[in-house]
Design brief:
The chain is α/β, with parallel strands linked by helices. Helix content is 22%, strand content 29%. A 7-stranded mixed beta sheet has the order 1-7-6-2-5-4-3.
Length: 160
């Protein structure tokens, strides 16, 4: 059985940020578990822009940058904690353990992981994978669920 998936066209940065907002709107109930989103794509394709839209929709104010050098940037809004993770500069997958990502696998937590492939299987598995790639001057995105909670998010996403 294939996992449910969606393909989207993103004509500009606003649409990419809107994708993140729609994903935040579609979050399932996280009172019993956390949620992991893997974001993949080339440099500059829009992964951080998508995360920015996600966090803004949840009410995060201020500057939201890619945690390229800090690797993990946590945000808390009410009972929800989001950790934006960027593994681009990771030197070796063994460094994943030092980041403390396991603490974000708890209820009311969302892990948004850019460049999960740099973790070579050491990162938590995705509930939802988002691939954002260039499409000329625009972008395109593919969303694929990898768990029942990921499938729930995609159902809510489509129903919006």
């Amino acid at each position: 059985m294939r996992e449910p998936h969606i393909r989207l066209s993103l004509p500009d940065a606003a649409a990419t940020e809107g994708l993140g907002a729609r994903l935040a709107d579609a979050l399932p109930d996280l009172s019993r578990s956390g949620f992991v989103i893997h974001l993949q794509g080339e440099l500059g394709a829009g992964k951080t822009t998508c995360v920015r839209g996600f966090l803004r929709r949840l009410g995060v104010a201020g500057i939201i940058r890619s945690p390229t050098y800090t690797l993990v940037e946590p945000y808390t809004r009410g009972v929800l904690t989001c950790a934006h993770v960027d593994l681009y500069r990771l030197r070796h997958p063994s460094e994943i353990e030092e980041l403390g990502l396991r603490e974000y696998l708890a209820p009311h937590c969302v892990l948004l992981i850019e460049w999960p492939d740099k973790g070579a299987g050491q990162v938590p598995p995705a509930d939802l994978a988002a691939v954002i790639d260039y499409d000329g001057e625009a972008r395109r995105a593919w969303l694929r669920s990898h768990s029942s909670v990921g499938a729930s998010l995609l159902e809510r996403f489509v129903a919006q």
